[in-house]
Amino acid sequence: MQITIRGHHLSITPAIEENIRCKFADMTKHLDQVNSMQVKLTKDHQVDKRTRKGSANHIAEAIVRLPGVELFAQASGDDMYASIKKLTEKIKKQLTRYRKMQMDFQPLAI
Q1: Of 2, 35, 88, 94, whose Cβ has the fewest other Cβ atoms within 10 Å?
Q2: For 22-40, how does the pLDDT look when each residue is reduced to its tens digit (9 = 90+)?
Q3: pTM score of the predicted model
Q4: Could you give the CA distance from residue 41 to residue 83 in angstroms, rounded to a whole number?
């Protein structure tokens, strides 16, 4: 499986890259059909005028490509690691739903 990690308005540190690779590798180790995965990390520089502080401005997006299907999820949080954790939970839900759908449509061997 090929994982592409891009950063928009931030640089990807080795710790963030390792965190993403470990989480997605654990999630997809039982699913061989994943062709590629693209992760985009963004830091939004908007600041709230009242508190002068940014909130939920770390955004993580992922596109997982399977044969005939693309899964997409987006998560945001105050910390990039929290955003990545939310993102992996969303993708994991979609993958389990996809896996269940594949199991339901398999023909029975007689």
Answers
A1: 2
A2: 988 887 776 778 888 999 9
A3: 0.82
A4: 9
CA distances 28 to 23, 48, 57, Å, are 9, 38, 27
- Strand segments, DSSP code E, in 1-110 are 2-8, 36-43, 58-66, 69-77
- Residue 57 placed within a domain: yes
Q: What is the pLDDT of residue 27?
A: 78
Cα of first residue to Cα of last residue in the chain, in angstroms, is 33
| Number of domains making up the chain | 1
Distance CA 102, CA 104 (A): 5
Specify if 109 maps to a domain. no
Beta-strand relationship, 58-66 and 36-43: antiparallel
CATH for 27: 3.30.160.100
E strand or H helix that includes residue 16: helix 14-28
Compute the residue count for the chain.
Answer: 110
What is the pLDDT at residue 82?
92
